[in-house]
Amino acid sequence: MTYLTIKNINHTYFxxxxxxxxxxxxxxxxxxxxxxxxxxxxxxxxxxxxxxIAGLIEPTSGxxxxxxKPVKKIRGQIGYMLQQDYLFPWKTIEENILLGLKLxxxxxxxxxxxxxxLLKQIGLAGVEALLPKQLSGGMRQRAALVxxxxxxxxxxxxxxxxxxxxxxxxxxLENLVSETLTRFHKTAILVTHDIGEAIAMSDRIYLxxxxxxxxxKTFIIPEEFHTLSPFEVRNHQAYPELFQxxxxxxxxxxxxxxxxxxPS
Length: 264
Ligand code: ADP
Ligand code: MG
What we know:
It contains 9 helices and 10 strands. The protein is of the alpha/beta class. A 6-stranded mixed beta sheet has the order 6-7-8-3-9-10, sandwiched between helices. A 4-stranded antiparallel beta sheet has the order 2-1-4-5, with helices on one face. The longest helix is centred in the last third of the chain and has 23 residues, at 239-261. Magnesium ion binds at residues 46-47.
């Protein structure tokens, strides 16, 4: 059985004066434990698709099911992590990371210990009583990841979670997130506009074209990369060629988009 099934998604945003078709005929499948990336130019519908997969937006047409259940019915089992950490500034890190459990009435002793232990494993032991502003950007994103994992989601959706971080922190976090998700055998979808990040972290990359957003190409990442850390992938001899291939595809897409947008 396929784990996550995205079937023929179309989505149009309507405002009083306009209609924007954000997604057209998007179909794809994800197996349990896979790490998938959505790559594409800005505005190609990546965030829209992620919100649909999270069950937060009802698509104009099409369906998304996780283990055969419509995602709208199992929202609590899908974890969503954004570029901005959205930690509450007036709550301590401990309160922040336990919030998901509290809201879903699962704040048991066992789940609390699981979450606090996760915080240690992700290298944040000792920050429990601190406020978010006392942490660096990278530390805050790690805390946000712990909060996302605290409810043991069946699926993790990561919308450009590293894009606001400096390069070195981003590389370190890629490794840490990858290692953590592998250890817990998590299924994840990452949205990124960073080709290197997509190659380094994924089993498969979906490249989207825009206006409307659709799956333009799929890239299968070589098996030999799967056992390597993202940092090691970036240093692998086969990495530059794959990067070039995807780069060229993305360039041609962006050139087309610009052509369409040229004012007449
Ligand atoms: P991406 O995440 O790839 O940058 P989005 O999913 O945010 O793309 O947006 C896809 C398209 O839908 C864009 O043209 C954007 O302007 C439009 N869009 C996104 N959200 C809304 C909204 N709430 N109302 C109207 N149009 C929207
Ligand atoms: Mg987006």
